[in-house]
Amino acid sequence: MPFFTFSPATALRPYIEKYWLLTGFRQQKEIITVMPDGCINLVINLGENIQSIHFNKQISHEGIYFVGTTLKPDEQVLQGESRLFGIQFKPGAFTHFYKWDSLNSFANQVMEFDQKLFPDVKKTIQYFIPYVDQFFLDRLSPPRSSIMSVVVDIEQHGYQLKIEALAKRHFTTTRQLERQFNQHIGVSPKEFMNLTRFKNAFEKIQYNRHNRSLSDIAWECGYYDHAHLTNDFKRYTGTTPSTLILSDFSKTIASDPW
Length: 258
Known about the structure:
Structural class: alpha+beta
Distance between the termini: 11 Å
Number of strands: 9
Low-confidence stretches: 248-255
CATH superfamily of the largest domain: Jelly Rolls
Strand content: 15-25%
Oligomer: single chain
CATH class of the largest domain: Mainly Beta
Largest sheet: 9 strands, mixed
CATH topology of the largest domain: Jelly Rolls
Radius of gyration: 19 Å
């Protein structure tokens, strides 16, 4: 399953995590599992239809889709020619390009996106990254209140903080923090912190070159114990850490949607 990532222009890197492209041909149906990543994605399907099982949605040929912040895994059925191009925004950055009242009702949702608000497909194919870069540079307009600094704080050591302490560090209240997260990411600060902690643990387990125990990794990442970590694995991947370790990560788990 060839999967390629591309860095955006330097000025866009604080806001856009990556552009990505999924390609390949599958004679038989193949089911891939996609993990939640805490990010919003815009996706265009230039290949065969893709069926999203958990979201009960067909990603149609030449369709453009908004993928909200997800907190659960998805299984997708691929067959025939795959050619999927996506823009992955950093958590909290989507509203630096699009003016939405709130993203809360769009979490765990896949929905069709207005083509007028997406890069021109023909120009994207012809000029690719330079054109997409310019499209988003032209749209970049930070909102009056941004939570990007809070997101960075959480990603660095948020699992060691309580919500009250996080709010105090950023000179706001817990209630205001809740409102801002629902508006700019679509999930609560606690949900985002939990997902960030899990992603950190997942990465350590996936690249566990020193054969550290799951209990040690769980403790380092802020979990109470091994069982607590296992519960999060079931929630976010649909399986246990032990089962995942024995599986082929490259074929069954993708850190990026679609």
